[in-house]
Amino acid sequence: MSYEPPTPPADLSTDVIDTLDDYSLEQLRRVARYAEELAEYREREARLAEADEEDELNEHPDNLPDDVPSKATLTIKEINDNRYYYWQWRDGDRIKSKYKSPVNSDE
Which residues form the DUF6788 domain (predicted)? Predict the structure, then answer.
């Protein structure tokens, strides 16, 4: 552990830095707990929103290719930090997939 004070993140506003500098040890620990809980909450909300988006895609498949059964759903797969749409369906004990297109980042 360093004996020097920590360097604040460059993108943190000076108002926040000044406010935190004035806080007691206990206040800083409460702020840290709150910030961690808030970050976890926002991550969870983002995951739920993405799941809802994927559920909507799964509920309304349209424009099915001829070789994709009507029971197929549209899902999003992330491969090498890129997102793609795939048709997916169950065929016996196996899940089959067929590529559709890349996910448009503007959507």
Answer: 57-104
Q: Are strands 82-91 and 73-79 parallel, antiparallel or unpaired?
A: antiparallel
* Mean pLDDT of the chain, nearest integer: 85
Q: What is the pTM of this model?
A: 0.47
- Partners of residue 69 on adjacent β-strands: none
Q: How far is the C-alpha of 56 from the C-alpha of 73, rounded, in Å?
A: 10
- The verdict on 70 and 101 lying in the same domain is yes
Number of domains in the chain: 2
Structure tokens at 53: 């988006």
38 and 69 in a single domain? The answer is no
Check: CB of residue 80 under 8 Å from CB of residue 73.
Answer: no
Q: CA-to-CA distance for 99 and 67, rounded, in angstroms?
A: 12
86 DSSP β-pair partners = 75, 99
